[in-house]
Amino acid sequence: MKNLSDQEIEKQLADLEGWEYENFALETTFEFKNFKEAFSVMTRIAFECEALNHHPDWSNVYNTLHIRLSTHDTNGVTEKDFKLAHRIEEIIVSE
Ligand SMILES: C[C@H](O)[C@H](O)[C@H]1CNC2=NC(N)=NC(=O)C2=N1
């Protein structure tokens, strides 16, 4: 798996509303109704991460969820990060 170029990252980000390339990672912040909603979505995302064997750097404060996706093995952004970002979007939309 190889790191994507800045140009390729910007191109692929066009299909991911609300996500940005910041600090060498794909980043977004979601806001939910309350902690229960946030944690429920995190649980669903966690199972997906296990299935993909790709994991986020994330933090949760009450109803907000900040997600940062990068590939630790290559120290950059790869197709794996975009795949997980799209899966996370599907999970959020289906809630
Ligand atoms: C051994 C295992 O495949 C690796 O440690 C996986 C697990 N999850 C991972 N998650 C992320 N974000 N980056 C990785 O490089 C990574 N590597």
From TrEMBL:
EC number(s) per entry: 4.2.1.96
GO terms (BP aspect): tetrahydrobiopterin biosynthetic process
Reaction equation(s) it catalyzes: (4aS,6R)-4a-hydroxy-L-erythro-5,6,7,8-tetrahydrobiopterin = (6R)-L-erythro-6,7-dihydrobiopterin + H2O
CDD domains: PCD_DCoH_subfamily_b
Keywords associated with the record: Lyase
InterPro entries: PCD_sf (IPR036428), Pterin_deHydtase (IPR001533)
Pfam families the UniProt entry points to: Pterin_4a
Gene Ontology MF term list: 4-alpha-hydroxytetrahydrobiopterin dehydratase activity
SUPFAM superfamilies: PCD-like
Similarity-based family: Belongs to the pterin-4-alpha-carbinolamine dehydratase family.
Name of protein: Putative pterin-4-alpha-carbinolamine dehydratase
Source organism: Arenibacter nanhaiticus
